[in-house]
Write a structure and sequence with these properties.
The complex is a heterodimer of chains A (about 240) and B (about 230). Chain A has eight helices and no strands. With about 240 residues, chain A is an all-alpha fold. Chain B has about 230 residues and is mainly alpha-helical. Chain B contains nine helices and no strands. The longest helix of chain B is centred in the middle third of the chain and has 30 residues. Chain B starts with a helix and ends with a helix. The chains are: A mainly alpha (about 240), B mainly alpha (about 230).
């Protein structure tokens, strides 16, 4: 078990391992997404209040979940990279930032599109919307810092520190904003004992959430592989790989 | 390394930074002028209706204070980085986090404290009540040190970069939001005659948290960006 993880931390081994599992992960992601979309768009019943407009939830909610999840992954792998100096963890942290920013952006845009028919406005200064917007700014700061520093290793380590500072701040920001103003509907899924959401809506939602997780995994592995090739371009195994017919 | 020596190093560094600052007084005055100027721009922009100014005054003053703090941030480490004394500090046997705390304290005394002294005047200009002005000074006293402490992490991350200024604001401003919310809300609530113990306690909590955690983060960031 430990041997496997030690091997995985070596860029060369990781590159091959990720290459081998990528097609499977991609196929699983596609299947889940298709199933989720089918269930969500065709099987799930129409909402008695919001009509069909609520169906954007199957994109909006998983994207919003992922926006936070990716930030935490980024901070944790950044911490691992800083403490144990594992290059791979740094690479994952750096590779996650643009993906997380995209999820955050997607959540904001779908939220605006959903808000127009249900709340009657594209944007309100509501607590969750505002903290999601601030999260986007945090991501953009991380990306900007990473691209401003030329040396890749220094950039990755600086980015990790910033992600850690951000992750300490996210709860503080979240609660301060919550206290400042709130209008958003309460959570309807986390109350697992008696979910206030219909089962036929819950299943596609969870399917889509799983599909989004896999999608993140696929993209982060692809980006990490690319980054490994760039960083290790002067090593023998990359040269062999490139020059092989 | 005994703690007495560490204390002396702290005091010596504090004195050095203060002396340097007093020899370049214009740098001290600039953020202050900026603070006053930005606040003056708002009535010109939104109109001089006293009721409107009174309601948005706390927010204006706090946003201006935030920007002034941001503007002066780079000077915490910039000149020391350019003349090489920052590297000497890092080579010293004392923990870098404590030395950074001394630098931040000196920086706050030079750029943050003056804001406190001018703020009542700006409060009067915007028509805040006496109680609201007292709360304004209290929130500035608790909040501006947090701004300096948190901002220094950003400075440490960007100090080696040629165009660090723009990125610095991108890194630091989102982290300033909780301070802005609690502080501006406290001043507004005082104006409405509501108790503000909660906001002041939260600001104090933020200050304690920042005091205990940010020096370590700053030291780590410096070691990375100057490696």
């Amino acid at each position: 078990m430990w041997h496997f993880f030690h091997q995985l931390a070596s860029p060369r081994y990781f590159y091959r391992f990720a290459g081998r599992i990528l097609p499977w992960l991609g196929a699983a992601c596609l299947l889940l997404m298709l199933a989720g979309l089918y269930q969500g768009l065709l099987v799930a019943p129409t909402d008695y209040q919001q009509g069909d407009s609520y169906r954007i939830m199957f994109i909006h909610v998983p994207a919003a979940w992922m926006s936070l999840f990716v930030y935490v992954v980024m901070a944790v792998s950044g911490a691992v990279g800083l403490v144990w100096r594992i290059k791979l963890a740094e690479i994952v942290a750096v590779a996650s930032a643009p993906i997380g920013a995209s999820f955050t952006f997607l959540a904001l845009v779908t939220g605006a599109i959903w808000g127009k028919p249900t709340w009657g406005t594209w944007w309100v200064w509501d607590a969750r919307l505002t903290s999601e917007l601030i999260l986007l700014f945090l991501y953009l700061g991380v990306i900007a810092l990473n691209s401003a520093i030329e040396d890749k290793r220094t950039a990755a380590r600086a980015t990790s520190v910033l992600a850690l500072v951000g992750v300490v701040n996210i709860p503080i920001i979240h609660y301060s904003v919550e206290w400042w103003n709130t209008l958003h509907q309460g959570a309807t899924v986390t109350k697992f004992d008696v979910p206030s959401i219909d089962l036929r809506m819950l299943i596609p939602l969870l399917l889509m959430a799983l599909a989004f997780k896999l999608f993140y995994l696929v993209v982060v592995l692809m980006r990490a592989r690319c980054e490994i090739l760039q960083r290790e371009r002067n090593t023998g195994w990359v040269r062999e790989l490139v020059e092989a017919p | 390394m005994s703690s007495a020596q560490l204390n002396r190093a702290f005091v010596v560094l504090l004195k050095r930074d203060l002396t340097l600052a007093f020899r370049r007084r214009s740098e001290m005055v600039n953020p202050l002028l900026f603070f006053v100027l930005v606040t003056t721009l708002f009535p010109l922009g939104v109109g001089a209706d006293p009721a409107l100014l009174r309601s948005i005054g706390p927010g204006i003053i706090w946003v201006a204070a935030l920007l002034a703090a941001l503007l002066s941030l780079e000077s915490v480490l910039r000149s020391d980085f350019e003349d090489g004394s920052l590297e000497q500090l890092m080579l010293s046997a004392h923990p870098l986090s404590v030395l950074m705390l001394a630098k931040v304290l000196a920086h706050w005394l030079v750029t943050g404290l003056p804001l406190l002294l001018v703020a009542p005047l700006l409060g009067l200009l915007l028509g805040l009540s006496g109680d609201a002005i007292v709360t304004l000074v209290q929130t500035l006293a608790l909040g501006t040190p947090v701004l300096s402490l948190v901002g220094t992490i950003g400075v440490a991350l960007t100090v080696g970069l040629r165009k660090g200024g723009m990125i610095l604001s991108l890194l630091v401003l989102p982290l300033y939001i909780p301070v802005l919310i609690f502080a501006a809300d406290a001043v507004t609530s005082t104006g409405a005659g509501l108790p503000v113990t909660a906001q002041l306690s939260l600001l104090s909590a933020l200050l304690v948290l920042a005091l205990s955690l940010t020096p370590a983060a700053t030291a780590a960031a410096l070691k990375i960006s100057l490696a």
